[in-house]
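Weekly structure sync - notes
Attendees: PM, LS, DV (DV joined late)
Agenda: review two folding runs queued last week.

Item 1: First target. Sequence and structure tokens pasted below for the record.
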Amino acid sequence: MDGNEQELKQQDEGYALMGAAFEVYNELGPGFLEEVYQEALEMVLAAQNFSFVSKPHLDVWFRETKLQKHYEADLLVNGKIVVELKAVRTLAPEHEAQLLYELKIARQRIGYLINFGSSPRLQWSRRVL
């Protein structure tokens, strides 16, 4: 698969991921805890045959030494899309920064920040390193 085909496949996966997120938001709406949205999103992703890891442990390295502290993304979808979920009134710069740290640590290029707490619609952003 060449680079262009790979990019198109990743875009399709991103569209499908966001379709699942919109499905959850449209049914539940805002107001629940982040964990509720995560569980519901995982149900939809599993039903759509997505491969994902819930709460993947992301090791942090410093000078070739693995640190005891680690990060935990909310989801790693298809082994390459880092997903950070929120249930807040509006996204803030620190939420974007968290996604960027997780992308860097996970050594992945594509990440989605999805906020189920906003109203009247789902708030989200896609980041590519």
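Item 2: Second target, run right after the first with the same settings.
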Amino acid sequence: MRQLALRAGKVLDRQISVILQGETGTGKEYVARAMHDASRRRGSFVAINCAALPEALIESELFGYVPNAFTGAHTRGKKGLIREAHGGTLFLDEIGDMPLGLQARLLRVLSEREVLPVGATRAEPVDIRVISATHRDLAGLVAQGQFRQDLLYRLNGLVLEIPPARARADLEWLIERIAAATDGQPCFSPEAMALLLCYDWPGNVREIINLCELVSAMYDGACVLPDHLPGAIADRTATTRLPASTVSEDDLLQLLVEHGGNVSAAARAAKIDRSTFYRRLRKSKIGTVA
């Protein structure tokens, strides 16, 4: 995550579009908001879920409309979400689910930096920074004819891969930070934390937030013990943990290299305890682990 933050920091105040790629629930909108807040852009942060917009309302919601542009239109017209983001950041969540027809209109906005409201005859200039997010393979969608290649080239100035929770070297810090931001600020015993670090978190950051809210409500400030954790976590931990003897020393060393020397992350990937990981490395005399 540190490298991701450094790369994001290079483009904070540049007119470079960014795609955040990662599994559902990894916190892509959080990263987008953090980039907006850290930049010098003082306009609004406007988030749009491209998969949730009703197709019949997409154009009027995004581009706005002039007064009485169509039957049922407001007499004062509507500004539209893109113009709401003027001077700020437009966050397009689930960009891979945007209909092809709308992709063509969005392409014009990005290339011309102007919006043509529904029913208008003159376009209006917009100053927006675009950050998109997706869990889908956009290049694969292009190959299937489901996503415009020219739009992809407009969006992918910088592509940042948001790692899943299970692959994060700072997973313990992440859990503790989310817990500290949760109403009631639950704390986890070392034994409970060890179970959390072995869990594969299929729901990613969203699942960690849900857990912290649950234990805070259920145990009201008490230290969270292993017995307090939902059964799904303990059960899945038990089924995914591998016997330490089944992982070779060469595999352990390779995992350590892949995770940049971070023993905690490598041990999680091997699904063995950190102490066992240390012991196996020292016993095999592969090398000294700092």
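Discussion on item 2: DSSP finds 14 helices and seven strands in the chain.
Action: LS to circulate a short write-up before next sync.
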